[in-house]
Structures are given as structure tokens and as C-alpha cells.
Amino acid sequence: MRKNDGLSGMDGALSGIAQRQLTGVLSRRLAEEPAIVLNGPRTVGKSTLLHELADRSQQPVIDCDDPATRAAVRADPGRFASGPGPVLIDEYQHVPELLDVIKAGLNRDLSPGRFVLAGSTRYETVPQAGQDGTTVVPLDALWTNRS
Q: Whole-angstrom Cα distance, residue 94 to residue 117?
């Protein structure tokens, strides 16, 4: 009889979230860098990775893909880019004003672990994010669990 690993369904297909090695890499980098940007195509695991980090750090994820959240962040980006770190922002590209607020925050304080941004946009199209003290983790090569 096959052991239930919590991930496999009756047909043997993966149905849960497999622990990714990148979670540990992200945690280690966050201990060294003030800001990390996770970029990659849709469905590669950026949001999942961000939520795993949220669980570990007991911080909320600010989801700018949600229209109500996006409107609130646009109205007061400084409110959402402050507070104890890490500040976790998903789909940051929907509110480009956030990058100016984050840059200003990094100009004042380059302490490690301040921001983690995740988005589906190409990093090169958001040059404001390319500041000193920002690590970009491209997730283009991250494979999904689909065949």
C-alpha cells in the first residue's frame, strides 16, 4: 500500500503544495538584503513562495491583484510600504507608486529584510526597482507541478 505523503491524490497526481528549496534560499537572502524582487511568469509559484514567507514571518501579504486592495494602496502607498519587515507585496506592478515609496524607505534604512515584492512583469520594464540593495530573484526557470 502506498504511503500518503499529503501531496498525492488517489491517481498519484500532486494535489498539495510541495515544499520548495527556494523558500530557504529566500529566507537566507532576506537576512542579507533589504529588498528582494521575485519576478517570473504566471503560475510558477511566486505568490505561493510569498505566502510561505508570510507564514514564517507572521506578516500579511498585500495583494495588489485584488481591486479593493489595489485602490487602497494607490490612495496611500506609504501606509502599505511601512511597518515592521518584511513588508510582503504581491503583484506590485499594479501600483508603480509603491516603488517610489520603497526607494525612499531604502534611502533612509538599508536594514536587511525590509521588503519582498512579487510580480509577473519583466524586471527590465521596471527600472525603478533596480536600486542598490535590491536582489532580484527571477523565477522564469521555476517549474510548476504540472506535466
A: 12
